[in-house]
Design a protein that fits this description.
InterPro entries: HARBI1_dom
Order of helices and strands: HHEHEHHHHEHHEEEEH
Pfam family, one: DDE_Tnp_4
Number of helices: 10
Cofactor: a divalent metal cation
Largest sheet: 5 strands, antiparallel
Distance between the termini: 60 Å
Protein name: DDE Tnp4 domain-containing protein
Strand order of the largest sheet: 3-4-5-6-7
Organism: Mytilus galloprovincialis
Radius of gyration: 26 Å
Strand content: 5-15%
Amino acid sequence: MGDGKNNDANIITHIIKRNIEKIREWLQEDDILIVDRGCRDSLDLLNELGIKSEMPSFLGRGEKQHSVEESNTTRLVSKLRWIVESMNGSIKFFRYLDKVLPTNQVPHIRDYVHIACSLINRYLKPMNIGDPEADELLGAKMLFLSKQINELKNKVENDGLDKRSYKWSKIDSSDFDIEFPRLNEEELRNLTLGTYQMKMAKSYTEEHFDSEGKYEVLVSAEDQCLLSAKIQSRHISAKCYQLWISFYACVVLDWYCKCKIGSRVVGMCSHIASVIWYLGLGRYTDKQFRINNWGQYLLDAKNIPEPEEIDASDDEATVTEE
């Protein structure tokens, strides 16, 4: 099936049909198969065989954002699948395995992967070195949150916080005018429920600075504990996502972003994480964030002198052999 003509769904269907008895012996009661979106067309077969499965959600036709329930469920799936993607990335660290291989190499791929994995097991650190008890507590927390609603999303929609008529005040966060709770890295990880958003926070933060090096957020005129900001998309240059964050004293209460997964309460999207990271930790550091002023490399056309006429007839590059 690895001939380039079959997708993931065809491959998994082929595997299951050929080995259904062994797969039933391998699976235990209440087991759940965690699959990616490429296996969508094989879900019906899994259901017919009584095999439970979970997959990240797809956006419906005409929809711009996943529902709160879909976003939360997708986060649970991605939290479990990250180890698979990380392991795939480690294997593809070997340049030979990072490319599409010619057909005549297919008989040898198994041996090459064995060698690569042996080197990884011998010389690289384990992917997961966490505490099983802590992992179990984190899983229980995520399951609990997955059943909650996004109250701030409802407030944005019901009170029209995304309308132009709603009054906001601009504040330069670098002046420490915002009494936002100060957080450490552990507290931030407890909010994001992972490290990926924390890694992305720096780049999103740098994108949010304006040409004068100011990091601006909006504060509600009616509620000083309600913030709003617009964060540039990493994938679409002309797209910005509006987000809202509510807080009180030393606690970040709720968040909501208009990106595809911004409605979830099991963790948060990278846009929200970047704002919380900067306001709660980043602005207190001594680190100077990189602000690229590309305008310094541009010249005003009216100040450029007219070019001198150059006779290139003596230039060796223009001489051709007879």
